């Protein structure tokens, strides 16, 4: 499939460069021209070798007890296996060169106990299931990141490391926080950054203000520029934001989308794609200042919801084309999505609202779900900018 991955976080010169850039970024206004920050040019050799790549991204993974019970049954009494629940999204994820998820909850010890709302503690086997499904990296900054404190945060990242799943948004040390997650795809180096609006009032651990990335525009821009300095050709930002159960983006989402997409360094955008989570319902896709923003991908894994919209989500796909010439930039040449529904009977599983099953056996429920998602996703004119939805 043409996947080219870097195993683990970058070390050595690249990591040092990123750390230095983050520590010395200075003021972070939207105009970086002449500052030297974010100055990253692609060599002629790399341009000649570069190929388009497709990035796929999906919504919140926030397993409630009902989902965990299903995963335990699927594992046959030996831990938890989420791959059968996720099987419906696997074809979309496997076809992408780079796949990103949002891991909203922290992990417990392998043997439990595991808990749901309000303080989540999920089975660590979930990391392995996500990796087997085809995900390369997960954002981890959310309002639930600190549900089990600093120990839970470290336990979560350790499980992801062991599964070979990269992560962004929370950290066990200041150097880890300052080191961008960089992944190779199609000849491009892609940086994955992640931020959350808050942590449900749980304070950051004493002496560890870097443990969770909080969503502040100037800091996001500074980190994006540091990632460019570390070698990133494309910068993807995952943001946990917005108002829960509201399909329309709220005022802060709209303001931050404009602020972040307007930021430039030496005439080049600092951020190439924004992926939103947290709302639990699908929200609009929109091109802002020429950059795609997904305000809300919806939930991917949750549980039985009182509001049926909480069972809806989309898998976004963006195809990036290589730059024209060594001073050019990667750009999105195609944007599309696949709608998904989490069904609970006879068992929990993700169903793509496309293809034969949706047409032949889904009935009115599948049609209504697809129409509900379509209305939200295209509510801000994304069709005019070329977004399509799989049939």
Summarize the topology.
Layout: H1 12-23, H2 44-49, E1 53-61, H3 65-74, H4 83-86, H5 90-95, E2 98-103, H6 125-133, E3 137-139, H7 149-163, E4 166-168, H8 174-178, E5 181-185, E6 188-196, H9 217-229, E7 234-240, H10 251-262, E8 264-265, E9 268-269, E10 273-277, E11 285-288, E12 291-294, E13 299-301, E14 312-321, E15 331-343, E16 349-352, H11 355-360, H12 363-377, E17 388-389
Parallel strand pairs: 1-2, 1-13, 2-3, 3-4, 6-7, 7-10, 10-12, 15-17
Antiparallel strand pairs: 1-14, 5-6, 8-9, 11-12, 14-15, 15-16
Helix pairs in contact: 1-9, 6-7
Would you write up a description of this structure?
By secondary structure, the chain is α/β, with parallel strands linked by helices. It has one domain (51-389): Purple Acid Phosphatase, chain A, domain 2, CATH 3.60.21.10. The chain has twelve helices and 17 strands. It has helices at residues 12-23, 44-49, 65-74, 83-86, 90-95, 125-133, 149-163, 174-178, 217-229, 251-262, 355-360, 363-377, and strands at 53-61, 98-103, 137-139, 166-168, 181-185, 188-196, 234-240, 264-265, 268-269, 273-277, 285-288, 291-294, 299-301, 312-321, 331-343, 349-352, 388-389. Strands 1, 2, 3, 4, 13, 14, 15, 16 and 17 form a nine-stranded mixed β-sheet that branches. Helix 6 links the parallel strand 2 and strand 3 (137-139). Helix 1 (12-23) runs antiparallel to helix 9 (217-229) and helix 6 packs parallel to helix 7. It is globular and about 55 Å long. The two termini are 23 Å apart.
